[in-house]
Write a structure and sequence with these properties.
- The chain contains 4 helices and 11 strands, in the order ββαβααβαβββββββ.
- By secondary structure, it is α+β, with helices and mostly antiparallel strands.
- It has one domain (3-171): Sandwich (Jelly Rolls).
- The strands form 2 sheets. Strands 1, 2, 3, 4, 6, 7, 8, 9 and 10 form a 9-stranded antiparallel β-sheet that branches. The chain has a two-stranded antiparallel sheet with strand order 5-11.
- β1 (3-6) and β2 (12-13) form a beta hairpin.
- The two termini are 24 Å apart.
- It binds fe (ii) ion.
- The record marks 104 as: May play a role in transmitting local conformational changes.
- Pfam families: ARD (PF03079).
- InterPro entries: ARD, ARD_bac, RmlC-like_jellyroll, RmlC_Cupin_sf.
Length: 179
Amino acid sequence: MAEIRLRNTDERIQGEDKVRAFLDKQNVLYEHWEPSKLPEHLQQKFSLSDEDKAAILATYDAEIRDLAGRRSYKTWDIIALSESTPNLDELLKKFENVHTHTEDEVRAITAGRGIFIIKGDDETGYFDVELEAGDVISVPEGQPHFFTLMDNKQIVAVRLFIEPAGWVAQPYADPAFAK
Ligand SMILES: [Fe+2]
């Protein structure tokens, strides 16, 4: 279950109803897919073959098509990151800059953990959304954010796109953001 940390106050928001209500208010979609549906050998596997990726997509085919149908996503794929990913540290450095996209950034976590850092409304400021397997999030088009891994540096997620070109990152220079 996702947890929120408000960066300005260090306040944490926990519990499905509170997390969903908070994210709703910030226009961030939050849903849940059942993590135990995934075959057990894939629940802790972070270096994936094409067959593994196909198995994950097949497991969540109904959830993917339901979400895509409601929100006009046309394509989807799997991203897997772990210590075995070549140049992981460089990749993470590239990720860790506030940016926007011209379409939603959708991630359904199927294994591991990760954090979206998102710019909320003026009163809220930046907040962290700590995600684990089963958490599904969509950061709206144009909303400044970035993504990083948690300490164990392991994640597998389904990504959904309207068109992959829409996911090109536009840097967002924000003097209000302090890491
Ligand atoms: Fe992004």
